[in-house]
Design brief:
Helix content is about 50%, strand content about 20%. With about 240 residues, the protein is an alpha/beta fold. It has a single domain, classed as Rossmann fold (3-Layer(aba) Sandwich). It has a 7-stranded mixed β-sheet, with helices on both faces. Helix 7 links the parallel strand 1 and strand 2. Helix 1 runs parallel beside helix 10 and helix 6 packs parallel to helix 7.
């Protein structure tokens, strides 16, 4: 193929990428970048404590995140066997905690925490289980000792930090060496931008997030996908198994 055609196609591809990024930035909610972290944290707490938070479990079912998320545990794509102390970061309405209770070893301890006390109350009612311990906490300042968990799940929470570093540093601190984490977060795609608009969160670039995790000693063991179709069209956000070095 003549080099001029290759150059033209490369230029067209770059142009499409730039236009897509511009469109995503227009759609994406920018509150997280406009106010202080304390103001933003209060706003997020209010959102999840209000009507949107009350509908979160239903929204997760309608979007298929609950059944597709369960498949990750049921098929051992993220294997809970052998975990003794599990932390569910930002438990919300207990969507992931429900899977932890079902698929973790019977003797495993499960700790759920969330910024919103109201969401914790909803999770208790929804789960109807005395297995988890519920803690009101902030991801950037977790009230747990160093190296106290050997497994962490963090589902669509990291995007509520303007800068992911403080949250990932805290996760690395409380996760034991060799311990693993299931991380799900909103990607900088068009669908991710709409998620951002609804839930006042930010999005992450896959490569940038991978590089930051590596810098902090959190190795990406494998990228996970809900289905083959999700993988083919690069949908569903960022979903990875991470291990602390």
């Amino acid at each position: 193929m003549p080099s001029t055609i290759l150059q033209r196609r490369s230029k067209e591809t770059r142009g499409k990428t730039i236009r897509r990024k511009v469109l995503n930035r227009i759609v994406e909610n920018d509150l997280i970048r406009r106010v202080s972290y304390d103001e933003y944290r209060d706003k997020v707490s209010d959102v999840y404590s209000g009507p949107k938070g009350a509908l979160l479990a239903t929204c997760s079912l309608l979007s298929l995140h609950v059944p597709l998320g369960e498949r990750l545990f049921r098929e051992r794509k993220f294997d809970l066997r052998g975990a003794r102390a599990i932390l569910d970061v930002g438990s919300g309405a207990g969507q992931i905690a429900k899977h932890l209770i079902k698929y973790a070893d019977p003797q495993a301890s499960i700790t759920c925490f969330d910024l919103s006390r109201q969401m914790l109350r909803r999770a208790r009612v929804r789960l109807k289980s005395d297995v988890p311990e519920f803690v009101n906490a902030d991801l950037s300042r977790m009230p747990f000792a160093d190296n106290c968990f050997d497994c962490i799940t963090c589902g669509y929470v990291l995007e509520h930090l303007p800068d992911p570093r403080p949250g990932l540093v805290e996760i690395a601190r409380v996760l034991r060496p060799g311990g693993k984490m299931l991380l799900l977060t909103t990607e900088d795609t068009f669908s991710g931008a709409w998620t951002s608009r609804v839930w006042y969160c930010r999005t992450y670039n896959r490569r940038d997030l991978h590089n930051l995790c590596e810098e902090l000693g959190l190795r990406w063991n494998s990228e996970l996908w809900f289905t083959r179709m999700h993988k083919a069209i690069r949908a569903g956000g960022i979903c990875v198994e991470i291990q602390r070095r």
